[in-house]
From TrEMBL:
Keywords: DNA-binding, Transcription, Transcription regulation. Coiled coil: none annotated. This is Lrp/AsnC family transcriptional regulator. GO terms for molecular function: sequence-specific DNA binding. GO terms for cellular component: cytosol.
């Protein structure tokens, strides 16, 4: 990636859009160049999709729960990780190191759904136990990690020049 790519990615994160016209206004990169670079970033797998943020509370998914899973598995975690991500309501799942083997984040409509989620996770054969934490208030919910950095930091850390 070069400086223009990083500037485009940062602008996409800040603006929440991939609109070439809006990106041009933010970066002064010509619109035709933006089209070209966006296509290249998609082909490289750096851009995965279009951005449509949803207010989860407004649609009725205002209960956020973090669940730590302790497991007892033989072989590779890949053999059963699909069971975890297939549980309804799981929006993020991470394989971790330390006392916790997996961390799951779910956005749910109510407490009954939390109980169902925990039950579904605990019925997975390899899961030994769960530790759940309810989110009381959200301090930051960013799906675009680049918006949390200064452009100068990104340029110095990510460009290959």
């Amino acid at each position: 990636m070069d400086e223009r790519d990083v500037r485009l990615l940062k602008a996409i994160s800040d603006l929440g859009t991939g609109s070439p016209e809006r990106l041009h206004e933010e970066t002064d990169i010509p619109v035709s160049t933006i089209h070209y670079r966006l296509n290249n970033l998609r082909e490289a797998g750096i851009l995965e999709n279009d951005l449509y943020d949803i207010d989860l509370e407004a649609v009725g998914l205002g209960v956020t729960v973090l669940v730590q899973l302790s497991t007892d598995y033989h072989g590779s975690h890949h053999d059963f990780e699909e069971k975890i991500v297939d549980v309804e309501g799981v929006s993020q799942a991470y394989f971790t190191m330390g006392e916790t083997d997996f961390v799951v984040i779910a956005h749910l409509p109510d407490r009954e759904s939390v109980e169902r989620l925990i039950t579904d996770l605990e019925t997975i054969d390899e899961v030994r136990g769960t530790n759940s934490t309810f989110v009381v208030s959200t301090l930051r919910h960013s799906t675009r990690a680049l918006e949390n950095y200064d452009l100068e930091t990104l340029l110095s850390e990510l460009t290959s020049e």
